[in-house]
Amino acid sequence: MANDVILYSYFRSSAAFRVRTALNLKGIPYEQRAVHLVNNGGEQYKDEYTKVNPMNEVPALVHNGRAIGQSVAIIEYLDAVWPSPRLYPADPYRAALVRQAVENVNAGVHPVQNLKVLNELERRFGLKQEGKNEWAAYWIDRGFRGIERFLSKNAGHYSVGDEVTAADLYLIPQVLNARRYNVDLTPFPTIQRVEAACMRLEAFIRAHPRNQPDTPDDQK
User: Fold this and answer.
1) Partners of 33 in the beta sheet?
2) Entry pTM
3) Residue 39 to residues 31, 34, 149, 157: CA-CA distances in angstroms?
C-alpha cells in the first residue's frame, strides 16, 4: 500500500529530489508529505516534524512506521530492501566509485551552498541575495571542476558506467542548483551529457521539482 512508505519532502530540496528519483526508479509507491522549508520560519522546525527527523531537515522516509533521515541512509536502505534495480553495483570497486561520486556532491558541494548556510550568511554577516548567489555559484563551480574530471574517467552513458546508479541521483539535483545560480556549464561537457541522459528517464522527470504536489504554480 502507498502509505507503507511516506516521504517527507520539499519540492525544491535537492536531497528530496534524490530520494524521489530512487523511489521512482524502483517503482515503490509512496505517500508524499510536504514540509515547506521557508513558510512560517520553516515547517521543518515544528515539534511534530522534529519527532520524525531530529535534524529538522528533509527528506525523511517512514517505512512501516520507522523513520530514516538523510538521503544517503535512505537510498542505501531502499537499495537493501528493494534491490532491483541496484543503485550500488555488486562489484566492490564500482560500488566504491559510486559512493565517491555521491560524496563528491553530498559532502563536497551541496553543504556549503544549501539553504541553512545561505540563510546564516545573511543573518550573521548581512550578505544580500546577490552575494548569496555569488557564494553558491563559486562553490558549485569549484566542485564541478573536480566532478567533471571524475566523470571524464568513469562515466559511460551515466555517471559511473552505462547503468543509472546512486551517483546520478546526486548529480542531477546539483546541476539544477547550478542552473538556478547561473553557473556557466560550458566547461563541464560530461556533466551536461550525463544530465541530458538522465533527464530523458521518466523516474527523473517525475521527481523533478517542477512536478511535485507542493510546487507553486509559478514554478511548474
Assistant:
1) 8
2) 0.96
3) 21, 12, 39, 39
Three cell numbers written together for 28: 515503490
Please give the Cα distance from 20 to 33 (Å, whole number): 12
Q: What percent of the chain lies above the pLDDT cut of 90? A: 97
Per the CB < 8 A criterion, the answer to whether 17 and 71 are in contact is: no
Amino acid at 30: Y
**H or E element that contains 50:** helix 47-52
pLDDT the model gives residue 220: 87
How far apart, in whole angstroms, are the C-alpha atoms of residue 73 and residue 89?
16
- What is the edge-to-edge ordering of all strands in the sheet holding 5-9? 31-34, 5-9, 60-63, 66-69
Count the neighbouring beta carbons within 10 Å of the beta carbon of residue 98: 25
Quote the cell numbers at residue 192: 551536461
Label residue 48 exposed, middle or buried (CB < 10 Å: 0-12, 13-18, 19+): exposed
Cis peptide before 59 (omega within 30 of 0): yes
The alpha carbon of 132 is separated from its chain's Cα centroid by a whole number of angstroms, namely 20
Beta strands per DSSP E along the chain: 5-9, 31-34, 60-63, 66-69
Cβ contact 48:196 at 8 Å: no
